[in-house]
Amino acid sequence: MKSAFLPCVRTALLGLALMFSAASAHAQTFPERAVTWINPYPAGSASDVTARLFADEFSKAIKQPVVVINKPGAGGLIGTNAGATAAPDGYTLLVGAIGTHVFNPVINSSTNYDPVKDFEPVSRIVSFPNVLVVSSKLGVNTVEELIALAKSKSASEPLLYSTAGNGTTSHIAAGQFERLAGVKLTGVNYKGTPAAVNEVLAGRIDFVFGNINVILPQVKAGTLKALAIASSERYSLLPDTPTFNEVGMPEMEMVVWSGLFAPAGTPPEIVKVLNEAANTVARSGVLQPVYESAGATLEVDATPEDFAKLLQADTAKWVPVLKEMGIKAQ
């Protein structure tokens, strides 16, 4: 007597085979129409400008239009949630960032997405190095001198640092610096990096961690002095500025990146197609000089798995720091 179980097994296996065959066939023809990128940050921001530059080249690689739409608000939560809940078919991607996928889940209790479970990493597309700069009038020329000055201050009159806003990379970098240097500092939050840098220029604030594209003109003009850069290597536009690793503070390294994410459940074959398109953009060599002139670095991961590993590493590094600092979204 034949078991009734065997036909069920055959039916299930046939169904799986058909499903994988359909997914493979879809990947071979993907994409067949325009792809939308959701940017959770405002139009004109560094993330927006570089994403649009990348999208133009990405469109050529996939031979379909790429439409970038901005959905800012709530520190990136609105746009990121829209990316998480989009159809998992590869036609809607999120331009996520270290802020949306590492910082927000810790500092913002309103975060309504899981940065790992709700997304499929595709590839980074850009990074921005933060630079520690002081007013040229402060009278310090090195990180060591800045720390010595901070230690000489009384508790009632500590050095002041400005940030681009509560929970931003400039805020977190300054908090990490205070923690590692063993000094007492006072932070003042502003709305955006330009405002934070302007306060240092005006002499009302002592230092700031600023995006290189914002601080570079003032450093070149001599009104700001760059003490160290939070990247793994010296930057071509600031060749005389040491990395934090060179000054004995390797924990200060922070790669501020933006990258593409697909909604969870997107077929891996399609994620691979998208990653390969990003690598095609990188190999073309078109964007690197454009990015560098804007103070950014072209960053593309060879595989989606490489991007996932970087996300895991950043989470392991920064989540304990954020919890110790006690930063909460306001």
From TrEMBL:
Cross-referenced Pfam families: TctC
Top-level division of the source organism's lineage: Bacteria
InterPro entries named in the record: BUG, Bug_dom1
Residues in the signal sequence: 1-27
Keyword flag Cytoplasm: no
Keywords noted in UniProt: Signal
Family, similarity comment: Belongs to the UPF0065 (bug) family.
This protein's name: MFS transporter
UniProt source species: Pollutimonas thiosulfatoxidans
